[in-house]
């Protein structure tokens, strides 16, 4: 009993709902789950975009200095990169990219699909910003499903519920999709030194020790103990049948500049990334 009391109990630190812009064709609708203007609060995360789009929105483009985690909510996502990579992801699939020093790729809707995705930008520490560019597709059927009383947790990344997710990030993170029935409660256990946020895909949940209710398109950040080395507990209660995503990671605590498609430590490094791209150092187009 005393041991349980010592476990860090998370409370909701802040919460909000996503505001959307109607952009027309082909980038039909966009909103920020995590707004880049607040990136220092979200460390190691930079932003998360919630996008509905048609083909032609995210054609060939470069990246440097960070990672992306793209979760497909609906539709089919076609990935093409200039190293010869090609794949199509369906609902529930995830693509992880370490842009590293020079990624050049395209992310497109297949045929006439209207695709709905969540893309998270995950920072890299300075010593990893020049690493090799890599891509990893995580298929839903390869994601561990761990049942609990009143629901199931799908472990995409990190060690959760005694299983390890297949997503292999360059920095320590967790990513879980949690499905909870109305009236059921799930205790999500993640390291106490992880900065964490939650996004409600459907339903309504009650969160944390302060019991904050949050519905569809709601976002919450949580208290954490950056110097702690133990676990923590986040209580998630289903007020309705609900589906949520929870992400967590260890803060990097470095200066960060996000500008256009690049995330570096200084503006000089951003300008160098543009010079390198314009000089052809990112390689040929992804097509």
Summarize the structure.
This protein is mostly beta strands.
Folded structure, characterized:
This protein is mostly beta strands and 287 residues long. It has one domain: Sandwich (Jelly Rolls), CATH 2.60.120.10. Helix content is 7%, strand content 52%. The strands form six sheets. A seven-stranded antiparallel beta sheet has the order 2-23-20-25-18-15-14, with no helix packed on it. The protein has a seven-stranded antiparallel beta sheet with strand order 3-4-5-12-7-10-13. Strand 16 and strand 17 form a beta hairpin. The model has no long low-confidence stretch (mean pLDDT 96).
Key attributes of the depicted protein:
287 residues; mainly beta; Jelly Rolls; seven-stranded antiparallel β-sheet; 3 helices; 27 strands; 7% helix; RmlC-like_jellyroll; metal ion binding; Pirin_C_dom
CATH homologous superfamily designation: Jelly Rolls
The number of helical segments is 3
Topology order in helix (H) and strand (E) letters = HEEEEHEEEEEEEEEEEEEEEEEEEEEEEH
- Give the distance, in angstroms, between the N- and C-terminal Cα atoms: 59 Å
Please state the structural category: mainly beta
Shape: globular
CATH T-level topology: Jelly Rolls
Domain module count: 1
Average of the residue pLDDT scores: 96
**Helicity, in percent?**
under 10%
Radius of gyration: 19 Å
Report the sheet-strand fraction.
Answer: over 45%
Order of strands in the sheet with most strands: 2-23-20-25-18-15-14
CATH class label: Mainly Beta
User: Would you count the extended β strands for me?
Assistant: 27
Main sheet record = 7 strands, antiparallel
- List segments where confidence is low: pLDDT < 50 over at least 5 consecutive residues: none
CATH architecture: Sandwich
